[in-house]
Design brief:
Layout lengths: L14 E5 L9 E8 L3 E6 L8 E7 L6 E14 L4 E10 L2 H17 L22 E6 L8 E8 L3 E6 L8 E8 L2 E18 L2 E10 L2 H11 L1
Antiparallel strand pairs: 1-2, 1-4, 2-3, 3-6, 4-5, 5-6, 7-8, 7-10, 8-9, 9-12, 10-11, 11-12
Length: 228
């Protein structure tokens, strides 16, 4: 995948129990979280789990005394060659406001501890949300009101951020205004965000990741429908 931002790994204190809803008699199995975000997580399993399989997870967060229960869907599962285990990536599909808040605070805690700006989504989870080639956007930095919008194509998109190419280097935390032309949703969708990372690809071409700071609910639903 072209999105090469290296995620900071979580500590071993986050453990998870999981089970398949269609096999409740098997009970929960305990394992370790390898990586986590507000949209999903990567964890080790003893068996190969097929993509699109529903899974119930019980996550014990280090900042909270109680566990949180989330249902998700497997998007990828591959064998680790050096061990008889598998790495499974699951995308969360239902969370209430309290669960999402607890997860956000815990993920933010680890991002801050490692001193890194969080990417819009974790690398392994983005495989399920690649932007179609028809997704175009116009962007401009908000410090220059006289500057016109620049047309470009999105590389990747999620419900928390977007990755696209730019013609210049932008500093981290630079405010950006984005206009998305989402397929099947003809109206241009306006979003505001901050640059989470910008790196040089080649001369006069950069790869820029923007994390949303303001997005309206209809726009968020449109992106959710597009990335399912």
């Amino acid at each position: 995948m072209v999105y090469k931002i290296r995620p900071s790994r979580v500590e071993k204190k986050i453990v998870v129990r999981y089970r398949l809803p269609d096999k409740p008699e098997s009970g929960f199995e305990m394992t370790q979280v390898k990586d986590i975000s507000t949209s999903g997580m990567l964890f080790s399993t003893a068996t190969l789990i097929a993509p699109h399989t529903l899974v119930d997870v019980d996550i014990k967060l280090p900042l909270y005394s109680q566990s949180i229960y989330i249902r998700g869907k497997i998007i990828k599962c591959h064998e680790v060659k050096t061990h008889v285990i598998y790495y499974s990536a699951v995308r969360f599909i239902n969370m209430d406001a309290d669960t999402l808040s607890a997860l956000r605070k815990t993920v933010a805690f680890f991002w801050e501890k490692n001193g890194k700006m969080p990417p819009p989504e974790r690398k392994i989870l983005n495989r399920a949300t690649r932007a179609p080639r028809t997704l175009m956007l116009r962007y401009k930095p908000m410090y220059d009101r006289d500057m016109g919008f620049i047309l470009n194509q999105a590389i990747n998109i999620s419900t928390s951020g977007i990755l696209f190419r730019t013609e210049r280097l932008y500093p981290v935390d630079q405010l950006m205004e984005l206009h998305l032309n989402i397929p099947m949703f003809p109206d241009i969708k306006a979003i505001r965000g901050r640059v989470a990372r910008c790196r040089r690809l080649r001369d006069k071409e950069f790869e820029t990741a923007v994390k949303y700071t303001h997005i309206e609910e209809p726009v968020l639903r449109a992106i959710q429908n597009m990335t399912r």
